[in-house]
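Exercise: predict the structure of this protein bound to zinc ion.
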Amino acid sequence: MSLSALVKTKLTSLLARKLAVRPARLAGHRPVASITFDDFPKNAWTLGGPVLARRGVRGTYYTAGGFCGRTENGAAFYDEDDLRQVAAAGHEIACHGFGHQPTPTLTTEELTQDAERNREFLRPFLGGDAPVSYAFPHGRVSPRTKRFYAPRFASVRGVHQAINAGRVDLAQLNTISLETRLWDKVRIETAIQRTLHENGWLILHTHDVSDSPSPYGSTPEMLDWALGRVAAARVPVMPVCDALPVALGL
Ligand SMILES: [Zn+2]
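Solution:
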């Protein structure tokens, strides 16, 4: 994508965030948290999975079918065997589009084809079901693409840095990054405390997990530290699909 197109989709995304496509009010009865991995790099499972297992929590893997079995810029992505293991361990396999394109750059027909392709790719790993949670690739959205995904998934996550509390948009849920490039222990701890006090929904996200992570990834220690702080606050961690009804008080 050209620089001007990137800037344009970023601006569109910022404006689109103001437009609540599926407004909802969280119940505020009790706090809940989710840990999510986008794309997803192979080591999000092979190194991230054991951290989650030690903490006794299940996560959400937002999966882009187009990355299956591929290595790009030296980074290996999950393969079908990983997906089977992720599912067998009880984690949620969620949708991140097939081609991982910024959605505002696709026509509605292309969005339909991409959504269908990823749904069919993921179905065998979901016992024949369709994925119920979606995250926007690159966090890029437009009012049109928010309206496209809102009725197709139980929840849709963006990349805006905040917890979810009070009035939220289920077509663009907020998240707190655990990525190296944005790593800030104070911000994460503050988000956990706000989640606790507002009975909100904290969704954490990262990509790769390794001792030498990309700017978009985390070390196992960073992941473990964040989950440890959530545990210390006694906020339960659940996959996005399970946290949603808790957050809504259903
Ligand atoms: Zn992504």
